[in-house]
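not sure who needs this but someone in the group chat was asking about Nitrogenase protein alpha chain from Desulfovibrio ferrophilus so here u go. i didnt clean anything up, its just raw.
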Amino acid sequence: MATAKKKLVKWEPTDIKEEMLKKYPPKVARKRAKQIMINEALENETPEITANVRTIPGIITMRGCTYAGCKGVILGPTRDIVNITHGPIGCGFYSWLTRRNQTDASGEGDENYMPYCFSTDMEDKDIIFGGEKKLAAAIQEAYDLFHPKAIAIFATCPVGLIGDDIHAVAKQMKEKFGDCNVFGFSCEGYKGVSQSAGHHIANNQIFKHVVGENDEEKPGEYRINLLGEYNIGGDGFEIDRILKLCGITNIATFSGNSTYDQFASAHKADLNCVMCHRSINYVADMLETKFGIPWIKVNFIGAESTAKSLRKIGTYFGDKSFIEKIEAVIAAEMPEIEAVVADVRTRTEGKTAMMFVGGSRAHHYQDLFSEMGMKTLSAGYEFAHRDDYEGRHVIPNLKVDADSRNIEEITVEADDTRYAPRKTEAELAALEEGGLKFKEYEGLIPDMDKGSLIIDDCNQYEAEKLVEILKPDIFCAGIKEKYSIQKLGVPMKQLHSYDSGGPYAGFKGAINFYKEIDRLTNSKVWSYMKAPWQESPELSATYVWE
């Protein structure tokens, strides 16, 4: 007897969006509809997407809090600053090494405080009577034990609610020590709609208290800063390897494998290269305004993107021998990549992916999937603003809302003695005319296929509904989504901290990624997953009415 074949249903993008919204109450559905966009892929006709707004209460979001963005993301990868969480121990533990940031402290005199979890461990009595004395004691203890170059203090929700003045304590202790920079971050978890506010708060304070503190000249003919790269799984090591081969000096990375002196010397670079636009674009603007360093958008995720970014750096400096050296490095690295991807594509061609990751990762990683012949069906960010989706041309029209006003605005002007434009206006104009764009990011939307779904602040319910309808071959997101997606029988790749593996950046990283995705998408293990009630129907409940 022949078995009936299961009829495949082709879903139109509008039907998918309608199905996802159907379960919400009308008011919630109207709000979420503005954050779920069908990409029309037509110039000047793609509707704007709503982003950087509060998550609707009751929805299980994929986002993190402001404190997580400040302490965990930006300062977490910095090895020689003692980072003290002023708050309950849970907050400090939550932000401790959870992103798998790697560092190399093997040099003489190098310090590494990342393995430590520093916290004031606030308890009930501290909430009632205040925790400023306890904070001062913790700073003193850290100074006595480690004598670090800097101590940073991070405020958590209870601190903001009771009014502890961490900045006054920091100033007092800095004056007391004399040889240790002490500064604080008002990064209470509720301060913004997502971790994006924490990135902004962290970078503002680093710029205010650290950048420009070290005026020693740095060696190197082609000096850059790499902004928005966090050395997860060793990504920064691979990028630094490539830069070194090309003869490029990386003065400072914000903030993977970073040190206090890197931040303090960042104004000595001649070009800023921005990786994660959302977490760092304002630092690039401030470095240009104060010190005259222009910036370009780069992407070291994907072999072709890495090569393109190196060529952009070569074009900026304009030295013929330097450009030839970059081309030689690319030519030496590409054969191995081409051999691996040719093999992998025989098994991954035509497969599909979804990505809901913070920063620019949901955009950058599409290049790697594309190199494998895979298609991205749907993507979005956890904490983006509209310019991350639509491009920087929308920035002048963005309205500042109440949540954004919680972030301290710092006024930056040209430094009286150290402002030095690296290129003349004529040189910059000539480079622009030749195709090198400064202060430019076109966003995620232009690179997405027509009809694809772009979703801001995707939540647990929507993620499961998308998987149910579109059945992707792989789903990429964060730790909170990992297990629920795997239970649906779909392999899940954690792109916030990689879980394991890496690096995935640069040339060697691309090879690692090809092999990892090949293994995941061609493994059948998750398709064998069955929930207990599917394996044992007798577990299903029945109701008896008397």
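also The first helix runs from residue 13 to 21. if thats useful
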